[in-house]
Amino acid sequence: MAVYTEVTDEALRTFLAAYPLGELVAFRGIAEGVENSNYALKTGSGDFVLTLYEKRVDPVELPWFLGLMEHLAAQGLRCPQPVKARDGVALRELAGRPAAICTFLPGVWPRRVRPAHAAPLGEALGRLHAASAGFHAVRPNGLGPSAWGPLLDRCRAGGDAVQPGLIAELDGKLAAILAAWPATGALPVGQIHADLFPDNVFFLDGPDGRPVVSGLIDFYFACTDLLAYDIAVCLNAWAFEPDGAYNVTRAHALLAAYQRVRPLTAAEAAALPVLCRGAAMRFLLTRLYDWMATPPGALVTRKDPLEYLAKLRFFAAAEGSAALGL
Ligand SMILES: Nc1ncnc2c1ncn2[C@@H]1O[C@H](COP(=O)(O)OP(=O)(O)O)[C@@H](O)[C@H]1O
Ligand SMILES: N[C@@H](CCOP(=O)(O)O)C(=O)O
């Protein structure tokens, strides 16, 4: 479910009249996604995605997100490119919501991650970081280490009902992560995606049948943070098998392909284990909070926080970066 705001044909036609995109040919709501309302749009000029930004996105931040996507697309990265209306403005309003049209990307996201996805993903992440180097506006990570304590506090009352002993375990693990977190200035910083999960990476089959990245989407958690933290997010999201086992071969392929674009510094390589623990903590906490805050019967499917407890435990026990595939 991800159409929270309905758009009438009439409102859409009036909205589209501001753009040089030709006549509306087809229009349908996209069921996937959780944050915003997305519509697939076909006009005389081609295929587009119309997004109406819902309550969880702060409208003040939208120019930063759209500016980053515009910058990355101009650098040749395959990501949604915001489309400007005739007056040069991409961020507009529709049905009482901030709204924007972006280019539609071909491909599908992998429902089942395979070893062959790892190298193209690593390369795409490296390219994203390289392409973002010229984008200088800063957006602090609202879900970075300083947010984890307050988020854990908000889960304190109900967390142990999800799993007995959970809150005490997270208190201990969070304290250890924060104590080992890299000092400011120790690692390279840049624009990161921060949520590059399989559902945000589209693939097509290349000429040899191997998957090729056809697009990266959903930049609405993007921020200015440690580049290597983005790798840690990807290892969390892509390197585990459905049975919970860490696939070190797949992780190695991801890391090696990334490093062909941007080699890691020695400090980044050494910090990888704590960055992976931090990324596991971040997704565990947001899932735990959503798990407790989402009322029964809500249309959004809740994501399992305990999947990330298992990942956090794995990273806490792993010995060094080599055990993670570096
Ligand atoms: N530029 C795009 N090109 C093609 N499909 C897109 C594009 N943007 C979004 N989508 C589709 O919309 C779905 C939800 O988008 P997403 O940005 O993940 O939403 P949310 O932020 O609400 O989670 C995606 O899974 C994809 O099917
Ligand atoms: N990737 C996060 C949830 C964010 O959802 P998205 O649909 O905006 O990518 C998680 O798995 O917890």
From TrEMBL:
Entry's EC annotation: 2.7.1.39
Keywords: Amino-acid biosynthesis, ATP-binding, Kinase, Nucleotide-binding, Threonine biosynthesis, Transferase
Originating gene: thrB
Family indicated by similarity: Belongs to the pseudomonas-type ThrB family.
Domain Aminoglycoside phosphotransferase positions: 27-264
Catalytic activity: L-homoserine + ATP = O-phospho-L-homoserine + ADP + H(+)
NCBIfam families hit by this protein: PRK05231.1, thrB_alt
CDD domains, alphabetized: HomoserineK_II
Pfam families: APH
Protein name (Swiss-Prot/TrEMBL): Homoserine kinase
Pathway: Amino-acid biosynthesis; L-threonine biosynthesis; L-threonine from L-aspartate: step 4/5
Keyword Nucleotide-binding in record: yes
Top-rank taxon: Bacteria
Annotated transmembrane regions: none
GO molecular function: homoserine kinase activity
Matches recorded under InterPro entries: Aminoglycoside_PTrfase, Homoserine_kinase_II, Kinase-like_dom_sf, Pseudomonas-type_ThrB
Organism: Paeniroseomonas aquatica
